[in-house]
Amino acid sequence: MVSKEYYLVSQRKIPRLAIVEDHLPADLRLAFSAFQTYSLPGRFWRALLRGAFSAGLPLWVSRKAAPGQLPLPPEADLEKIDTLLGKNAAYPVFQFPYNPERKKFSAFVRQGEKSYYLKCAFGPGSREELRNEIAAIRRLSAARFEKFAIPRLLDSAISQNLVAAYYEPIPADTRQPKRWGAPFLEIWKELTEKTRGENALSELKWIEDLHAHPQWRSLLKDISAGTLIISQNHGDFLPWNIRYDASAWYLFDWEEAGEGAPFLYDPLHYFTVYETLVRKKTPRQIAETLPSFLKNCNYLGVDLADYVLLSLGFQFINNRVLSKDVTLKIVAAYKSAK
Fold first, then answer.
1. Beta-bridge partners for 120
2. Would the pTM of this model clear 0.85, i.e. be above it?
3. How far apart, in whole angstroms, are the C-alpha atoms of residue 30 and residue 113?
4. Greatest CA span in the chain, whole angstroms?
5. Among residues 23, 35, 167, 172, which one has the least CA distance to residue 112?
6. Which residues on adjacent β-strands are paired with residue 17?
7. Residue partners of 311: CB distance under 8 A and separation at least 6
8. CA 20 to 30 Å from 245, out of 117, 224, 256, 331?
9. How large is the C-alpha radius of gyration of the chain?
10. What is the residue-level pLDDT of the chain in tens, covering all 338 positions?
11. How far is the C-alpha of 198 from the C-alpha of 259, rounded, in Å?
């Protein structure tokens, strides 16, 4: 299975990518499309890697590693994983998380212009994330979406120490839009429309958690009790999890999906993360430009003020991508500007 030497690429001394030596020319694009980054330092780093590999100087930005030297968790027995999933493929590309404590990895196999991918998780938190993804995809498998496709789960395995999932091909590399626009809006609207419902605020556990936090209790004091429009949320609705080929948009990586978020959560998460990490805007600048962004999202014609606060609160409780401190500063600036 894994028998060749790999080029092991690190970012700030943390291993991030492994590309098998024999497959280097064919799978270089696959490797770099697997590693999505949109911050300016990240884009510069990736451009440097592309240039070095294209110039035939891979050892300038990487090192050779035998299969046993790959930063896979000790439990990552690939032959066992293949046996569980009924697969038998060599994996020319591996992607590893920036945080080594997240015991997980992805492996990619090119098939024509697309790539199959395998996700494996070993630590308790990572296993829970991947279990959540498998459950979300199964939950949505009955829905027929027209604006986008969810990569079909071909096989999965769940045991005490391992969760693994194997997916149908998605585009290996695309030049999808990086900024919020019509495609992302249409994808989000359809996902919301086909999974939308209502829930009493008092029945949502994360609302209780927000009220237990002194600063949030003050921020939410003007929100009336009643029902909240909720929907299935993707959880990490950002360009690096959306790709396009000649026939369809693909929305993948559902590890942070959930059913109980405010319907506005996905686009607001997109906006705050993109503006913070990519455009380097301050919380106050984000709060000032938020109303103009929301004009394109209010297709339900409801008052979005409460949904902004509750969506940011949902992000705060789950602490996804943005720190709690940054999220709190955004909501405080938004509240003071109203």
1. 105, 164
2. yes
3. 9
4. 63
5. 172
6. 9, 95
7. 261, 262, 264, 265, 268, 269
8. 256
9. 21
10. 556 789 999 888 889 999 888 766 667 766 776 666 666 677 777 778 888 888 888 888 889 998 888 898 888 888 888 888 877 667 888 999 888 788 999 988 877 777 788 999 999 999 999 999 999 999 999 889 999 999 999 999 998 889 999 998 777 666 566 678 888 999 999 999 999 999 998 888 899 999 899 889 888 887 876 889 999 999 999 888 888 877 788 899 999 998 889 999 999 999 998 898 888 899 999 999 999 999 889 888 888 989 999 999 999 998 777 889 999 999 999 988 76
11. 11
What secondary structure, in 3-state letters, does the chain show? CCCCCEEEEEECCEEEEEEEHHHHHHHHHHHHHHCCCCCHHHHHHHHHHHHHHHCCCHHHHCEEECHHHCCCCCCCCHHHHHHHHCCCCCCCEEECCCCCCCCEEEEEEEECCEEEEEEEECCHHHHHHHHHHHHHHHHHCCCCCCCCECCCEEEEEECCCCEEEEEEEEECCCCCCCCCCHHHHHHHHHHHHCCCEEEEHHHCHHHHHHHCCHHHHHHCCCCCCCEEEEEEECCCCCHHHEEECCCCEEECCCCCCEEEEECCHHHHHHHHHHHHHHCCCCHHHHHHHHHHHHCCCCCCCCCCHHHHHHHHHHHHHHCCCCCHHHHHHHHHHHHHHC
Q: Where are the domains of the chain?
A: 6-171, 182-337
Q: Which two tokens stand for residue 166?
A: 């194997």
Q: How far apart are the first and last CA of the chain?
A: 59
Q: Which residue has the tokens 């500007």?
A: 337
Task: Give CA 86 to chain center in angstroms.
Answer: 27
Here the tokens at position 119 are 């996700």
CATH number at 6-171? 3.30.200.20
99 contacts: CB under 8 Å, gap ≥ 6: none
For residue 117, report the phi and psi dihedrals to the nearest 5 degrees: -140, 145
* Euclidean distance between CA atoms 89 and 86, whole angstroms: 10
Q: Which residues pair with 155 in a beta bridge?
A: 166
Distances (CA, A) of 95 to 31, 40, 106, 134, 238: 8, 20, 5, 19, 18
